[in-house]
Design a protein that fits this description.
alpha/beta
């Protein structure tokens, strides 16, 4: 199956018209739609996206995300075992720059055999994933 993991940075860029990556996000999402890619994300990415939209843009953006975008997603819920693997990776990395949400995203991608991530976060590329847009 043609699956792509979607990160907070892509959601934010797509939804916020004045974001510097907005046009690239729209083009990338159009291409993914044309190839019938399944959009995969995690519960932590959903939480992070809602928090970011709420703080920076407002509830109207949260409403748009919740009703227009979220129904199109296959959400992997971060449960106990995945959480602990992600936390162990974060602690082991001994870095302040990669969040628990990112580590959980990497774990989801590896567990599902996903190679591509729709993201503007270079940490995905440094973990060996293909970044869309490139």
């Amino acid at each position: 199956m043609n699956e792509v993991f979607v990160d907070t940075s892509a959601f934010y860029a797509f939804l916020v018209a004045n974001d510097g990556c907005h046009d690239r996000a729209r083009e990338a999402l159009t291409r993914l739609g044309e190839e019938n890619a399944a959009l995969i994300t995690s519960s932590l990415v959903l939480q992070e996206t809602v928090a970011l939209l709420q703080a920076r843009v407002g509830i109207s953006a949260v409403r748009s995300f919740h009703y227009s975008v979220a129904p199109l997603l296959d959400v992997v819920w971060i449960e106990d075992q995945l959480y602990h693997r992600s936390m162990a990776a974060l602690i082991s990395a001994d870095s302040r720059s990669v969040s628990l949400t990112d580590w959980s995203s990497f774990e989801v991608m590896r567990s599902r055999g996903l190679k591509r991530a729709f993201t503007f976060d270079r940490h995905f590329e440094s973990q060996g994933f293909i970044q869309i847009p490139g």
